[in-house]
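lol ok so funny story. i was supposed to be doing the assay writeup but got distracted and ended up predicting the structure for this chain instead. priorities right. anyway since i did it might as well share w the group, maybe its usefull for someone
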Amino acid sequence: MYEFDRRFLVVYGNFYPFFTGNLYNGIIILVFGGILMGNNNNLFDNKNYIHTYLSYMLSNKFTVAYNDYLFFSTKTFPSDSNRSSFIESPNKRAFSTLEYLHKGKKRMADFNQFMENTGTTALLIIKNDTILYENYFNGHKRETPQKLFSITKSFISALVGIAIDSGYIRSVDDLVSFYIPELKLKNIRIKHLLQMDAGIKFKEGHFPWKDEAKVYLYPNARELALTIVEDTKDTFFHYNDYHLLILGLILERTTGKSVTDFFYEKIWSPLGMEFPGFMILDSEKYSFEKIESGLVMTAIDLAKFGSLYLKNGEWEGKRIISQDWIEESVSPKNVLSNSEHFRYYHKHPWGKMWFSQNKAYYKYLWWGHLNSKTNNDYFALGALGQVLYISPENNTLAIRLGRKWGVMDWWPTILYKLINSTT
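and the output, tada:
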């Protein structure tokens, strides 16, 4: 018998009621065996993490669920009695068919059936603050909130800009160590965090010893953030959520407020949201916001954030975000877009699709695309195909939310085509 067997059997006995007779027994055994064989004692000793991990994975069959905010502790953002609203177009668009790609080949589908089959829950197109198209699928309605996943990151980009405008943070060129001296990241600046090229050590995967799983389910994200280390001094794009944990600590320490309170004060309340929303927390005990993926809100209220960017940070005559910050955040200037910068993803299917043409870039937690030498669109993108797409040239935004990605094509490309079909 290996020396870890006794400890493994103790843990197996403690969690036996969770998975007796379950189809995932083999996976559970592999998980715990891997934890122990990996000699990850800090992780193994954290019973709260193991309990959270098992509970989440078993309840969601080892996948990420679109409505998993019901699993976590949350903070609530109220709706606004003085809510703002968009204009309803008297001539709304109706789409009958949709052209899309499947394994590189063009296909045509009935529009509504395509949305139902792909797990789409909300689809909006808004031009000049006028709703040209708004529809909901798979049982969702205008008032149905949905988890935005990594669209949340683009809200955090806005908060960093507001913190700089307000004097809480001096500059994106500041070293992270200036704000978090106990975090041994000597060469990393705030700009690197915003561009996801900080050279932070991060391992993808859903097993509990992987960093991706820990960011998602570890019950004390502040503690986890302080374990982050540099992996390389070479700067290349590596999309990972440790960047956001550090930004969350910086915002919390510089503003003297929780990220939730700062967000409500500076963005949620000024935009006059029509429906309540939520922010997922790491746990009720520690209450650190999951700012990498935890914002939950309706599609129509998400559109207000997109409209704020189309208006260069001004809302109903009030300056919310400086125009300079918005232009810097989403502009392709002073950011690498060559395929070498994205070499980490050369073998990933979506990496081949998105980065191979040297037109894609990532800037301050926004994705961007060069449509030509003179104009670019940008978008916020989340797991399962959550997209907020912004086209400044057309003064138009489009939103797709869904239960799953649901198609071999690239949702931002689909939204780009829909926007340009309405002009």
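The two ends are 70 Å apart (CA to CA). The chain has a mean pLDDT of 88.
back to the writeup now i swear
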